[in-house]
Amino acid sequence: MDDAIRSDRSQRPEARHDPRLNWWREAKFGLFIHWGLYAIPAGEWKGEKIPGIGEWIMHRARIPVREYEQLAQQFNPVRFDAAEWVALAKKAGQKYMVITSKHHDGFCLFGSKVNRYNIVDATPFRRDVLKELAAECQRQGMRLGFYYSQTQDWHHPNGVGNDWDYDPQKKDFQAYLDDTVKPHLRELLTNYGPVALIWFDTPLSITAAQSRSLLELCRQLQPDCLVCGRLGNTLGDYASAGDNKIPQRAVDLDWETPATINDTWGYKSDDHNWKSVPDLLHKLVDIVSKGGNYLLNVGPTAEGIIPQPSVERLLAMGQWLKVNGESIYGTRPGPIQEVPWCRSTAKPGKVYLHVWDWPQGGRIVVPGLAGQVQGAYLLADPARQALRVSLQGGDVVIHGPAAAPDAIDTVLVLQSQDRDSTHSR
Ligand code: FHN
Question: Which of 243, 267, 271, 294 to mutate to test the pocket of ligand 1 (most atoms within 8 A of CB)?
Fold first, then answer.
């Protein structure tokens, strides 16, 4: 197992060939949304900048429940527009969206009968944003999943994590699972149409029996709904890599890297450390070349706006995918691995060589594919003009244009008649 994927957050072995995951295996790229009350303080509490990720402000500043929950009265994201968010994900080339239905602060972004600490009952906004997103995802053909913090809940006396309001010795975690988590899951998997997946997080001390009971409940309510590896105890439908972690080499599992565009997940007004478009695209390609999915996060503001730097980056990624998507969606890891200047993905009969550092003169020496490449062209070339292919010992040489056609990642399609030679798993 690669260090990037902890074994307890890995995939349940029976899920590896489960066809319920087929859409997810094809999808490769998703949008993560961390949104909640923490977008109001946006990293600052009582005039003090609180270090760390924005959605952890309650914990980092040890804000008492009675104070933090007052934020709900100010939560009025009048500029929230479900249609816009879904359209953005579509333009970015993302095939699924995952939004925080309840993060560790315990606030629910959906109307709930379980407790009143939710967007419908506790805020002036009173709109169920998950309902609006679910309807819009249906309309625009986007899969929607819900993040749900099953172990940490700093608002609930029996949830894990808040030791400044509640005595950890007196907590009854099983009661919390029974009276809060399971009824919430019941609501999420009953009131919002088909749910693509439940993205559990930070399993911590949850036992195998408790994780299993959540898995079974999800299965019973929506058999097709996937469950992420952070359910804990190696029971997820797919493995979850650590935050922003990319394995060193291809991993023979269904796995996903959740990642930030800047440093925080939930909105933080002073986090301007935006990753560049080339960096984000290389991360996407790197992950896909190793068999994973990339779940890239945005943190909307308290008004309901996705920060413009995130929007610009997502749109630029979508532009690249519009031309090069064939080399990403539905692919598997290609045969050329662990070569620093390129990555490879594959489909039957085709290897997609992603060239990051274009050699001077355009002479691309592909290690070790002699005898397996019948032709080559640039994926971005609509005419599919054949490039000259020659041999150099056991390597194949592709004679491309002198200068890189795409400064970020030029994709060469290497055609092979042997459909199986391109399969690396
Ligand atoms: O503690 C959370 C964190 O706030 C964020 O939600 C990330 C996303 O993967 N998950 C946890 C830390 O791993």
Answer: 243
Summarize pLDDT for 394-424 with one digit per residue, the tens.
999 999 999 999 999 999 999 987 655 444 4
Q: Is 215 helix (H, G, I), strand (E, B) or coil?
A: helix
Evaluate the CA torsion angle 115, 121, 122, 126 in order and state its sign. positive
Does any ligand 1 atom lie closer than 6 A to the CB of residue 199?
no
Helix (H) or strand (E) holding 286: helix 277-289
User: What residue owns the CA closest to ligand 1's atom 7?
Assistant: 243
pLDDT single digits (tens) 343-392 = 999 999 999 999 999 999 999 999 989 899 999 999 999 999 999 999 99
DSSP-assigned states of every residue in 85-146: HHHHHHHTT--EEEEEEE-TT--BSS--SS-S-BTTTSSSS---HHHHHHHHHHHHT-EEEE
Q: How far does residue 201's CA lie from ligand 1's centre (Å)?
A: 7
Distance 219 CA to ligand 1 centre (A): 24
Note the pLDDT tens digit of each residue in 68-119: 999 999 999 999 999 999 999 999 999 999 999 999 999 999 999 999 999 9
With a cut of 70, say whether residue 42 has pLDDT above it: yes
CA separation for the pair 364, 389 (Å, rounded): 10
Which positions ≥6 away from 53 have C-beta within 8 Å? 263, 264, 265, 266, 268
C-alpha dihedral, 183 to 185 to 191 to 196, nearest 10°: -170
Q: Which residue's CA lies nearest to atom 13 of ligand 1?
A: 243
| 202 Cβ below 6 A of ligand 1 | yes
- Residue 100 CA, closest ligand 1 atom number: 6
